[in-house]
Structures are given as C-alpha cells and as structure tokens.
C-alpha cells in the first residue's frame, strides 16, 4: 500500500514539475513549484521525518514561494521577459540532462546499501523526530549551526543597509 | 494504560472511527461557520441598538440558509481579462488550509472502544503546532492569487496588503507559540492539553493549570496576531471597503464569493480552536472531562464572541500603523517573552 501511495505522489510530483517547466505564465509555474514542494513534504513524512515535512511546507511553500510569487506579480513578467530568454533554456536543459545521467550512473554503479546507523525508524518513532534533530543540532553540529546563524545575521544587516541607501 | 487504536491492531474499526471523526468535525465546523455569520449580524446589530436579521425564520434563524441559496443562484462571472486558472483556484486555496488545520485539535479525552483507546482527535501529530503554523502560512496564497488574477487594481492592492500583513504577523504568531512549547516541551497538541490539566502550578487548587495564567502576554499577542492573520477587524486592511471596494474578492461572485466568506469564518473558528487548545486548556475545562466536546466548543464560542465584539468596537487601523505595530511592537514583545520564559525554564 505504501508503494502504491509513493508512486501516486511521485506521479503528482513529476506532473507539477513539468508544469513548472512547460507553463508559459510564470505564476502558473510558481504554483506548480508549490505543488512539487508539497509532494516532497509527503515524501519526508513517508521517510519518518515529520519535522522536515513541516519545515519544508513552512519555509519553502509558506515563505519563499510567497515572496517569489509576490515579485513575479509586482514586476509583471510578461511577454518581454519571455522573448529575451528563449535560448537560455538550452543551457538549463543541458545541465539537467547531465545531472540526470550522473544520477543514473550513481544508482547503477554506486553502493547503496539501504538505511544504516543508530537512528532507526523505531528510535525516531519513540523519541520523536523533532527532539532528535534538536539534540544533534545543539551538540554535535553546534558550530555549523552557529555559522549559519551568523551568515543569516550578515544577510539581515546587508538587507537593511541596501534598503537604507534607497531612502 | 490501554493500547492506542491504530491501523495495525484493528483496521476496520480504525477506518470507521476515522471516517466518523472526519464527518463529525467537518459538519460541526460548517455549522459553526454558517451560524457565525448569523451571530455576527445579530450581535453587532444589538450592540448598535438594531435588531439584525429578523425576517427569515424566528429571529432570522434561517438567514444563513437563505444567504446560501441566494449566492448559489447568482450568476457566476469570470472577468474577461482575468487569469482563469489562478482565478478559479484561489477560493479553494483559501478554504482548504483552514479546514485542514482543525484536524490536529483534540476535542476530548480518549474513549475506550473494544479494549482500545480511541483519541477524540482526527490525528495526533508529533509536530502538531508546526503543522498548524505551516498551514496557516498557506492561507495567504488564496488571497494573493485572487488579488492578482482578477486583474483589477482594487483586488491587486488588497492582495498585496494581505501578503505583507500575513508574512509579518505570522512571524510574531510563531514566536508567541514558541514560548508555549518551551514550557510544554512537546509539539503535540494532545500532550499540551494533558499538561494543562490539574490545578495551577500543581498548588493553587481553584484555578486550572492553563497556559493563559502562566503566559498571559503570549495569549494576548496570539489573539492580536491571530486577528491580523485572518484579516478580521481592526486589521481587515485587505478588504477595507471604504478604500478598496471589497479588496481581493471584488471581482468574485456567486459561490466563489461564498467560499471566501466561508473561509473568513472558518479561519476564525481555527484561530479560536488553536487559542483554546494552547492557552485555555483545550477540552480540559470548567465542565468534567467527559464533556470535553462541550468544554472546547464553549471556549471557541467565547473567543469568537470576543472577535465579533472587537469588530463592533474598534475602527480599522491605518496600514502604516499596522506594519509598525507588527514589526516594532509585537515581534520585540514576543522575543522578550521568549527570553524571559527561557530564563525561568532554566532556573526552575
């Protein structure tokens, strides 16, 4: 049953991915992308990572995509932008083709042995995904976490400086 | 401790109970939404020394049904220059997150059926509050898309205002909730209600251990940000009728307009239910726990009455005041609240 469900969601994810690429109107593409994020969140839930799923929806679908949609609407990217970038698509297509080939090679030649390590499904179910992430983030990965927060602070300060210059 | 009913230990019963809970919650929410419109008109009417609807049924009790029938038979208009797909999607995208969120609200203690514990909650998620926040953030899509796709300046302005407002207030709402789960040390709404049962701080017998007493500032901030997030007066900037005709739903008619209308009240029910669960003890309340359903409905109605009362009392704030309050008052206050809570939690 889980496999069938996986295939249904995978189909939806692929379909919305195609919408993102093929739609003429940027707003429809953005909506397709939101749907893709949803499918990714469903995959996280199926992998027993509910925290990741919630954050995926909250950050990507709830915040970043809203901002992107906002920009698309305000700039009103219409026919002009579409004409300018017709040949840019070729590079994107090449890049994605390359990554697809690399992935296929990895799946064929690489050593994928399945899940390993201490944190199994049962541990996640009994302790809770959020608790596990919180603990590792503030003990084992404290330095990367702090670096990320300093980077964000720099970004905030930069944004304020840029915005102040305009006024 | 009886075992929890799950898909693996009794599949037919699990599916049956799930379906039953879904239908009951859906019907109850729809009924509350329908009669909230009637209550709102009645309450505001009486507060302004009018009678409100009186003609349809006894004291206008059939008014929501009459409204529904009327909207159902209205002509469905799609503006010629509208962007059709987002225009059709928008009303659904605003209503669905509201209904989905109610799934994690517990409305009673566990019931034992056939030796298995059945929670009175559609689903208990380990990440309950995050789920609520995630879907609250999605409501903005409906408004933005409605505003943009209608291709009308009033709609667009309404949509732009709504986005800015919801993004800024969502932040403050999230920060106030952080203070709650710093105390509860769990994100599951079911366990948060369980923690709030019993006397206050385990020592004061005549008050329940609700978070509204431990976190009064967070409760006030949550109600304010909640009102802003569902665009209720005094924060109904996106549809300020004196400036923007009807805001983002200006171009909508018939049942699509009705969906926006329903979404507004459904969101009100959701915010009231979340506030009741997080701060007012959920189903653990003044009445005995076996009447949990009545307890939480009572609290939801009280908060909704408060929202309607505010609408009858306060004028609409100006847009710049709204933004200044969100960023310069509410977020700092929420941050201070989080910091103080953290210190207290560490010290005790």
Polypeptide structure, described:
- The complex is a heterodimer of chains A (167) and B (348).
- Chain A has two domains: 77 residues, NADH-ubiquinone/plastoquinone oxidoreductase chain 6, subunit NuoJ (Four Helix Bundle (Hemerythrin (Met), subunit A), Up-down Bundle); 50 residues.
- The model of chain A has no long low-confidence stretch (mean pLDDT 82).
- The N and C termini of chain A lie far apart (58 Å).
- In chain A, 83% of the residues lie in helices and 0% in strands.
- Chain A is built from eight helices and no strands.
- With 348 residues, chain B is mainly α.
- Chain B has one domain.
- Helices cover 65% and strands 4% of the residues of chain B.
- In chain B, a hairpin with a 3-residue loop joins strand 3 and strand 4.
- The longest helix of chain B has 37 residues.
- The interface between A and B is medium-sized, with 24 and 27 residues.
State the gist of this model.
Chain A contains 8 helices and no strands. Chain A has 167 residues and is mostly helical.
Spatial separation of the terminal alpha carbons of chain B: 30 Å
Give the fraction of residues assigned to helices of chain B: 55-70%
Give the distance, in angstroms, between the N- and C-terminal Cα atoms of chain A. Answer: 58 Å
| Largest interface (C-beta under 8 Å) | A-B, 24 and 27 residues
Largest sheet, strands/sense/barrel of chain B: 2 strands, antiparallel
Number of strands of chain B: 4
CATH superfamily of the largest domain in chain A: NADH-ubiquinone/plastoquinone oxidoreductase chain 6, subunit NuoJ
Q: Which helices and strands, and how do they pair?
A:
The complex is a heterodimer of chains A (167) and B (348).
Chain A: H1 2-22, H2 26-46, H3 50-75, H4 79-84, H5 88-109, H6 121-127, H7 129-138, H8 142-166
Chain B: H1 11-47, H2 63-72, H3 84-101, E1 111-113, E2 116-118, H4 128-149, H5 153-184, H6 189-195, E3 199-200, E4 204-208, H7 211-214, H8 216-229, H9 241-244, H10 254-279, H11 292-313, H12 319-347
Antiparallel strand pairs in B: 1-2, 3-4
